Amino acid sequence: MRLQGTMRVNDKNHLEIGGCDTVDLAREFGTPLYVMDEAMFRQNCRAYYRAFTEAYGAEVIYASKTLTNLAVCTIVEQEGLGLDVVSGGELYTAARARFPMERVYFHGNNKSPEELRMALEYKVGRIVVDNRYELEMLNAVAGELGVKAKIMLRLSPGVEAHTHEYIKTGQIDSKFGLAIENGMAMTGVKRALELPNVQLKGFHCHIGSQIFELQSYAHAAEVMMTFVNHVYQETGYTAEELNMGGGLGIYYYQGDQPRPVKEYADVMMGAIRAIAAEFDLPVPKVIVEPGRSIAGPAGITLYTVGAIKDIPGIRKYVAVDGGMGDNPRPALYQSKYEACVANRMNEQPAEKVSIAGKCCESGDMLIWDIELPPLQPGDILAVSSTGAYNYSMSMNYNRLPRPAMVLVNNGRADLIVRREDYADLIRNDIIPERLRSTVVKLASSR
């Protein structure tokens, strides 16, 4: 496993992160356990701030769908970034963290009237409108509240980034946005300019996630700025803002080659400025929405090894106490991860095994065919690059409680998400009174 951030091997031959021994963390907080490297998370925020904000005056907003809780929102605000939210729940979390609402951008392809009202009452900075239905609904809700909503229109630029099919979002055949190619975008712009209760500030696009080819961003910038020019020529409206989304890839597995944030910024901003000059347009304020590339590398997950099943000549399965409940990405996207034996770091790989989760699903496999030292029940397995989308996509399948999360820094570990217990699993369950009486009747009739 490639060590990242503050990870190192200490003198006990244990994996250490944030100055904390992972074996001690597993003992104190239990497993599965999400561990976030605060120093690396902050370092990644600062890399974006330097590359985009300081160098180009662009705004960086953290994509909270990647990983959000009260502590994460607090760190993001402290590092000078804005926040991208995609639901009422994420917006509520930001509000409870006292995040400055003027730095919040509200996304989502099917916002409810209640969510739009909530966003307007909270006075979020921008609402990113995804479709014509939402545009009309927002205009009506804003009218009822007597406010004018500041909006961006999400567009589909027709750019297909080379990534997993389920995390492509910029192509014309997508549930997100108004397509430029077929005229839906221009129709949406004209309608937005007509409506009395919305103020169009600019345009948004997002071409996908886990992207390594920076020319995909340059191409998207070219398409979007060309559209900005077409809108100006046809309507006289000049976009003030251009949100280019996020999606920069990170290292998960051997062969992944992440690009430096500065290079990403230079490629994108260079393309936007060149095309603006070509069309004699002002350079819009640029916004970017990193998420995975901030949170992903900063997280690891600790598991305890349990049952080991060796099928001679076929495969050796090593089961851990987590799985798709805390990391559904391998089942969803065939995502690949690296891992190490946290309590025996200096031992050399000696056998090929497959890491299985404990859910009652054949597809609950965390890692297929990984070379590790001989494993024993009770060993602590550390899986890297789990800061993005693992906790946020976690679930209670098989009624498994979600893991705890700790924030580590300078030898200190702070609990930022409590582990769920069995009582949490039934907290919202209700037995209707008629079922209770039915049970009584059935029992009395036997």
Largest sheet: 9 strands, mixed
Q: Based on CA inertia axes, which overall geometry fits?
A: globular
Summarize the amount of helix as a percent range: 25-40%
Low-confidence region ranges:
163-170
CATH class of the largest domain: Alpha Beta
Function: Specifically catalyzes the decarboxylation of meso-diaminopimelate (meso-DAP) to L-lysine.
InterPro entries: Ala_racemase/Decarboxylase_C, DAP_deCOOHase_LysA, De-COase2_C, De-COase2_N, Orn/DAP/Arg_de-COase, PLP-binding_barrel
Domain Orn/DAP/Arg decarboxylase 2 C-terminal: 35-387
Organism: Desulforamulus putei DSM 12395
Structure, explained:
Residues 47-295 form the Orn/DAP/Arg decarboxylase 2 N-terminal domain. It comes from Desulforamulus putei DSM 12395. InterPro entries: Ala_racemase/Decarboxylase_C, DAP_deCOOHase_LysA, De-COase2_C, De-COase2_N, Orn/DAP/Arg_de-COase, PLP-binding_barrel. With 446 residues, this protein is of the alpha/beta class. It has helices at 22-29, 38-56, 70-78, 88-96, 113-122, 132-145, 184-194, 215-235, 261-278, 292-295, 329-333, 422-425, 433-445, and strands spanning 8-9, 15-17, 20-21, 33-37, 59-63, 82-85, 104-106, 126-129, 149-156, 178-179, 198-204, 241-243, 285-288, 299-311, 315-320, 339-341, 351-356, 365-372, 380-384, 404-409, 412-417. It folds into two domains: 8-37 and 296-424, Lyase, Ornithine Decarboxylase, Chain A, domain 1, CATH 2.40.37.10; 38-295, TIM Barrel (Alpha-Beta Barrel). The chain contains 13 helices and 21 strands. The strands form three sheets. Strands 4, 14, 15, 16, 17, 18, 19, 20 and 21 form a nine-stranded mixed beta sheet that branches. Strand 14 (299-311) and strand 15 (315-320) form a beta hairpin.
